[in-house]
Automatic annotation (TrEMBL):
Molecular function terms from GO: transcription corepressor activity
InterPro entries: SAP18, SAP18_sf
Protein name listed in UniProt: 18 kDa Sin3-associated polypeptide
Transmembrane annotation, as ranges: none
Keywords linked to the UniProt accession: Repressor, Transcription, Transcription regulation
Organism (species): Ignelater luminosus (Cucubano)
A single GO cellular-component term on record: nucleus
Length: 159
């Protein structure tokens, strides 16, 4: 008998065959102030000015999106630059938009949200992405001023 080779492929549960599935347009709004845009910036048909249009799939990770933003924003390539991601979506009960933070990544450091996908973040096609970029200088300046909490701890809700 001839030997049989068994090949086991590990597939991510939310993997998309990017050769067969058409990408969708994700409208991304970037803020380099370290803070997200205000939700009122999205109301009444308006959007913030700093827009990137990215064609992507639902299995794209936050780290992949950060890499795409770094391609067009050279300042964001510096080690220690933080990216805070939020989804902006219409409220079904009122004619306004809501914002929900979905994760953070840091240039040059591995983090727990790096591999989070848009599907895991419950993105719906048509939602906007708001990315707040904080350069590493801002973090070191804040730590010198006596701020000891990290950004992620500061942003969490108290229990």
């Amino acid at each position: 008998m001839a030997g049989v080779d068994i090949i086991i492929e590990e597939k991510k549960e939310d993997a998309v065959d990017r050769q067969k599935v058409c990408p969708f347009l994700l409208r991304v709004f970037v803020s380099t102030t370290g803070h997200h845009h205000k939700t009122m910036d999205y109301n009444k048909g308006n959007v913030p000015q700093n827009e990137l249009q990215i064609y992507t799939w639902k299995d794209a990770t936050l780290n992949e999106l950060a890499l795409l933003v770094k391609e067009v924003n050279p300042e964001a390539r510096r080690k220690g630059t933080k990216f805070a991601f939020a989804l902006v979506y219409p409220d079904i009960r009122a004619p306004v938009y809501r914002m929900r933070e979905i994760g953070t990544t840091t240039t040059g450091q591995k983090g727990p949200d790096d591999l989070k996908t848009l599907l895991q973040a419950r993105l719906s096609i048509g939602d906007y992405m708001d990315i707040a970029i904080t350069p590493p200088d801002s973090w070191t300046a804040n730590s010198r001023k006596g701020y000891t909490q990290s950004y992620s701890n500061h942003r969490q809700r108290p229990y």
